[in-house]
Write a structure and sequence with these properties.
Two copies of one chain form a homodimer. Chain A is an alpha/beta fold. Chain A has nine helices and twelve strands. Chain A has two domains: 3-52, Spermidine synthase, tetramerisation domain (Spermidine Synthase, Chain: A, domain 2, Roll), CATH 2.30.140; 58-274, Rossmann fold, CATH 3.40.50.150. In chain A, the strands form two sheets. In chain A, strands 8-7-6-9-10-12-11 form a seven-stranded mixed sheet, sandwiched between helices. In chain A, strands 1-2-3-4-5 form a five-stranded antiparallel sheet. In chain A, a hairpin with a 3-residue loop joins strand 3 (32-38) and strand 4. Chains A, B: Spermidine binds at residues 62, 86, 155-158.
């Protein structure tokens, strides 16, 4: 018998991956959590039927969420990750020696638990002494923070289920308040092929709050369309104005200092969503 | 009953698309040809089980094959397209007013026939007076040409079936001979996630023949991994050295003059394939 996992990424299109075995399946307090071992992508974390991360391609998302804002900010010391319970963004954040503290606020403790068990090379750095892990509601955490963080990264699921509040203008206003006066935030904002309206709406909302609002892209094979977008809002520093000497050596598989700027050069139909 | 078409893009991974109906299916002299109407991507041309083009995302591939070399060459007049029987590359080539003649050499006349019938907005320009369509073996056509073309574009299927000869060093040497002394060629060279060896080998072969060899990328949702590569070989002109005044206005949905250079900025693991 062959087992295949299929994610319907839209009503009418999806990806399908051959499964060696199911490692864990559970209805948590917040969502359906599945961890499977695939032939092509290694272990794969699936939440509410949607691929969150895989061992083979996780580096793209995690590097691109973390390094673009962290190399844009001249001295990021205090970093917050909202969501991201698999720990991959935290792992990348810790590659920056300026970072003194990285806080992870993940609503679902089960995501952390099973990522540590089945995705150890992704989640392993959650044990680092600079990291504080809070199992809590990211929306509430943001609402209670003020003038505290240099960089905030929103590593959420899609705007269904527990993440629905994380795509609202009220949330972005809260982020602005939680950031210091020269803070930067970035959020994953889905793909331009099937979710153009979402990107357009987020760009509009963020632009009303942050003086510098930008969209950048990366290729993630297991995400819908393979092209993923990230919306960046910044109070002071422009990611396109980073000078060359700002970049220090870090080990990456996707991000480079050249890509730091090229990832903002958008295909025309994507650029049109930012206007 | 719901009908879904599934392409196994590797042994263990694929895409699946809901089908409204099958428009045509036929074993041609060279390959299995299917034309289906999908819910998500409109009409879709499938050869030997692999998606070739769809109405929704075809513009990416066709624009990126055509405009990168055509804006690199200062005065492309005589252009050859090998393969590409759907006519999409030809449509883009004809947007360049310098082009006096565009020759299409497609081995399988059935691809042309059913593209005209079911993909008219892609194939319609094959009737243009500047276009000559030859139903012939591209490998042989290249072997018989000398010092003739300004730009050659290889719009082939994967290196299985009729296209296997189009990924050989002998073919690239033939292309060099068929090009004028300042000619440029580009070929689609699959994706870096599942076909890294192919890209590395083509880069090595082309580099031994063309003084300027480059790799660029584009996002195509219906192709494996969503990230597609194109290998460009040039005798004289560097696509990265094109000056701004060279670009003239054309109507596109993906290509822009900024992307002309940014598409050569590769993720690290892809850049490593070119070394």
């Amino acid at each position: 018998m062959e087992l295949w996992f299929t994610e319907k990424q839209t009503e009418n299109f999806g990806i399908t991956a051959k499964i060696k075995r199911t490692l864990h399946t559970e209805q948590t307090q917040f969502q359906k959590l599945d961890m499977v071992e695939t032939e092509e992508f290694g272990n794969m974390l699936i939440l509410d039927g949607m691929v969150m991360t895989t061992q083979k391609d996780e580096f793209v998302y995690h590097e691109m969420v973390a390094h673009v804002p962290l190399f844009t900010h001249p001295n990021p010391e205090n970093v917050l990750v909202v969501g991201g319970g698999d720990g991959g963004v935290i792992r990348e954040v810790l590659k920056h020696p300026s970072v003194k503290k990285a806080t992870l606020v993940e609503i679902d403790g089960k995501v952390i638990e099973y990522s540590k068990q089945y995705l150890p090379e992704i989640a392993g750095k959650l044990e680092d002494s600079r990291v504080e892990v809070k199992v809590d509601d990211g929306f509430m955490h943001i609402a209670q923070s003020e003038n505290e963080y240099d960089v905030i990264m929103v590593d959420s699921t899609e705007p269904v289920g527990p993440a629905v509040n994380l795509f609202t203008k009220g949330f972005y206003a809260g982020i602005a308040k939680a950031l210091k006066e020269d803070g930067i935030f970035v959020a994953q904002t889905d793909n331009p092929w099937f979710k153009a309206d979402l990107i357009r709406n987020v760009q509009r909302d963020v632009r009303e709050i942050f003086p510098i609002t930008r969209l950048y892209i990366a290729n993630i094979p297991t995400y819908p369309s393979g092209m993923w977008t990230f919306t960046l809002g910044s109070k002071k520093y422009d990611p396109l104005a980073v000078s060359d000497e700002r970049f220090h050596e870090i080990e990456t598989k996707y991000y480079t200092k050249e890509l730091h700027k090229a990832c903002f050069v958008l295909p025309k139909f994507v650029a049109d969503l930012t206007k």
